[in-house]
Design brief:
Cathepsin D, subunit A, domain 1, mainly beta, 195 residues, globular, 2 helices, eight-stranded mixed β-sheet
């Protein structure tokens, strides 16, 4: 497991971060992230695999990060990395863009580079459908089609390391004695270890 020791960032409004769970840790367990209800559940015992239900998407790993199939209308399907830090869809590699493509500049905390912006008329993941999605397009010459998918667009998802799948906006099966139907009460502090 990789460990980075650094001062935690401070966010607007004085909010502090206790730590970051990276993919070197998360890929070893199953986990449920629920943006709407504001929780992350680590499923170290495999209980949620039996409790959660929904449409399962096949999971593949791209450089150790989970990637899911994303359908883009007439442009076809590509596997995009499920990225909790991405604010927009980012495409890499060859892409048959429809409509207007604009030159844009992209900036992260460490790098700035030129790319393009385009609008995806249709995008579908599981049962979720979006129209007219603004996307960045980088590395047109990359040999493989790929990119990043902003995880927050799903509102809730469960990554099963055992089944190598992702449930999009899962529900809790009834009855399910081995797991709660509702998220746990919020626990603050770095010493809290379980739900």
């Amino acid at each position: 497991m990789e460990v980075l020791l650094a001062e935690p960032p401070q966010f607007p409004g004085g909010k502090l971060v206790d730590g970051v769970l990276g993919q070197s840790f998360l890929r070893r367990t199953s986990y449920w992230i629920h943006y709407t209800k504001g929780f992350i559940a680590l499923d170290t015992g495999g209980h949620l695999d039996n409790c959660l239900q929904g449409r399962a998407l096949s999971l593949s790993l791209v450089k150790g990060r989970p990637a899911i199939p994303v359908r883009m209308g007439a442009a076809g399907e590509r596997r995009l990395v499920l990225d909790s830090g991405a604010s927009h869809v980012i495409l890499t590699g060859p892409f048959a863009a429809q409509g207007r493509v604009r030159v844009a500049s992209f900036r992260t905390a460490t790098v700035s580079r030129a790319g393009k912006m385009l609008t995806l008329p249709l995008m579908e993941v599981g049962n979720r459908l979006w129209q007219n999605v603004l996307a960045g397009w980088l590395d047109e010459a990359a040999p493989e089609s790929g990119g990043l998918f902003p995880a927050h667009l799903l509102r809730s998802f469960y990554v099963s390391s055992q089944k190598q799948s992702v449930l999009v906006e899962p529900g809790v099966a009834e009855p399910c004695a081995s797991g709660p139907a509702e998220p746990p009460d919020r626990k603050d502090g770095a010493t809290e270890t379980g739900w």
